[in-house]
Every structure is written in C-alpha cells, then in structure tokens.
Design a protein that fits this description.
The chain is mainly alpha-helical. The chain has helices at 28-32, 34-42, 55-63, 67-89, 99-107, 112-121, 161-168, 175-214, 218-221; strands spanning 125-132, 152-159. It is globular and about 60 Å long.
C-alpha cells in the first residue's frame, strides 16, 4: 500500500470520550488476540477435557468440524469478544475509535503524545498478510486451512507513518482494524525486544572476553586469541 494508501470510506468517528482506566484496558497483544483467545477456549479435545491444546491441534480440530459447527463457534466467540472489547476500550463493535484513543490502545500508553511518539517509532514497517481460501459462510478474519483448501496467498506491504496517519487520523478505526494493528504493533515490539536482548548479550560477551584478556599474565597476553 505505502504511498498509494487511500483513506477507506468510513463513517466519521464518534465524539471523543474518556477511555476506561488503564487497569481495565487490554495490552495491545491481548487486544489483538481477542477473537483467537475466545475461539481457543471453545475448541477442546473431548478425550482430554481441561487439557490445553496447542495451536496446531486446535486448528486441525476446527478444520475437521462440520461447517455449521465452525460457524456456530465463530458467532459465539464473536459475542464474547464484543463484551470484552467494549469493556476494555469503551467503544461498541459498530463504532469507530478516534485516532487519539486508538493510538493509546495500540501502544499501551496513557498520554496521546507518548502514544504518538511510540507509534511513530514502529515505522516504516513491512508486514506479510496471508489469505486462505475458505467457505464463504465464514466471514471471520481468522483463517484455517481445511482439507481440500490448499490455496494460501501471501502479500507483503510496506507502510510509512505518514501514510498510516493519513488513512486513520480523520476516520478512526473499526473494531477489526484496531485488533489487526494491535497484533502487528505488539509483534513489532516483541521482535525489537528480542533483538535488543540478543544485542546486549553479544556486547556482554565481548566485554567479558576483553576483561579476561586484560587479567591474563603479561607473558600469556600474546597467546590470547
């Protein structure tokens, strides 16, 4: 999308209101995973009740369910998500979340200026989206590869901060958009923390090696690699 991003045709955002207290909000990672978490709680293995299932097993169980059962679970999960979403954001599913509130929810911060600074630091970013063919009656954003549906399309897009801001600054975010970007930004944060830890560990090992060399006896220093 990048420079060619065009503002979507949204309704104007609702008048700005107060967000719920920070303690009642969800961190971006949980906000983005709401639907998946709700659906996960409903997919169980009857042979092992109460035992958590890994993601791959859940998807396999879901893929083998009759379509009507898949649809029933998605509808039920959607209702549960709506209750949690409204409590955590202060907005109904059909409302658009204005920019200032959305940026706070997307970054896990309480001040609009801090939220904007942190949001700006995420860009530019490139994301890869995967689309999977599925029955048309399932309109959830979650995709599962069912038997006989091997088509998986991948698309990479690079986003700039200015294009992102232009797209959402005026019109706000739908529920689906807010959850999607919460997932993206939480993943960016996780990846950067992991990269920073690796970098710090490498530096620490380097300093430790230099420290050991400096303590070596003078006659052995020339033999130190």
């Amino acid at each position: 999308m990048g420079a060619n991003m065009m503002p979507p045709k949204h309704k104007a955002p609702q008048p700005l209101r107060r967000l719920p207290p920070k303690a009642e909000r969800l961190p971006p990672s949980d906000l983005g995973a709401l639907l998946e978490q709700a659906l996960t709680a409903m997919i169980v293995n009857p042979e092992y009740p109460g035992v958590p299932l890994d993601k791959e097993t859940r998807e396999k169980i879901f893929a083998t369910m009759p379509l009507e059962e898949q649809k029933r679970l998605l509808v039920k999960a959607g209702k549960e998500v709506e209750k949690i979403y409204t409590r955590a954001t202060g907005y109904q599913r059909q409302e658009h979340v204005p920019w200032n509130h959305a940026t706070q929810l997307l970054t896990g911060t309480v001040r609009p200026s801090t939220a904007d600074t942190r949001l700006h630091s995420y860009f530019p970013l490139t994301i890869e989206e995967r689309s999977v063919s599925r029955p048309p009656c399932l309109t959830s954003r979650l995709s599962f590869i069912s038997p006989g549906e091997p088509k998986v399309l991948r698309r990479k897009e690079t986003f700039s901060y200015s294009a992102f801001r232009d797209q959402y600054k005026t019109v706000g975010f739908t529920q689906a958009e807010l959850m999607k970007w919460a997932t993206v930004f939480s993943q960016v944060s996780t990846d950067r923390r992991t990269q920073a830890r690796r970098c710090n560990l490498t530096k620490a090992k380097h300093h430790q090696k230099k420290f050991k060399v400096s303590l070596a006896p003078p006659e052995m220093t020339s033999l130190t690699p």
